[in-house]
Amino acid sequence: MSELFAVCATYEVDDGDARGFVLARLDENGAVKRWPILIARQSKNYYGYENACPHEGTRLDLVPGEFLDREGNFLTCGRHGAKFDFDTGHCFIGPCQGKALTPIKLVIDDGDVCLVDVELAEEDGLDIEDPNEVPEVLITGD
Ligand code: FES
Fold first, then answer.
1. Can you give the CATH number for the domain in which 53 is found?
2. Torsion of the alpha carbons at 36, 80, 18 and 39, rounded to the nearest 10
3. Enclosing domain of residue 58
4. With a 6 A CB cut-off, is 77 part of the ligand 1 pocket?
5. Which positions of the chain have pLDDT values less than 70?
6. Cα 57 to averaged position of ligand 1 atoms, centre (Å)
7. Residues 101, 108: contact at Cβ < 8 Å?
8. SUPFAM superfamilies, alphabetically (predicted)?
9. Which pLDDT score, from 0 to 100, does residue 142 have?
10. Number of compact structural domains in the chain
11. Is 101 in the pocket of ligand 1 (CB under 6 A)?
12. Would you state the pLDDT for residue 51?
């Protein structure tokens, strides 16, 4: 049976927008590692991606929380302007054209946007204001 981890409530991501979260995972050596992700929404569809640009691996939101192009039609990287489709994460213009964001499987469960079968280090770090910090309070992910 799949394990779910609720990241946020569905209403916390506006239609046509995206939000970033920083979770914590264990690396292969058992060390806690920051795991920035983003959840994008179009109508009733939610899309999860790792918040790492395929161009240089940095976060898309140069300004924290800003994931959209000026018109709000596409996900964009604030660093060099790559644009990505909401629904596929495919980069169609920019220095990583032809590559794609790494998708994260999501399910909607009882009004929550949930990750499926992702082994989190311990706690999420959702309460951290500075998204560059590693979560301090850790609990076992479920
Ligand atoms: S790092 Fe994203 S376009 Fe260069």
1. 2.102.10.10
2. -40
3. 4-126+135-140
4. yes
5. 122-142
6. 8
7. no
8. ISP domain (SSF50022)
9. 32
10. 1
11. no
12. 96
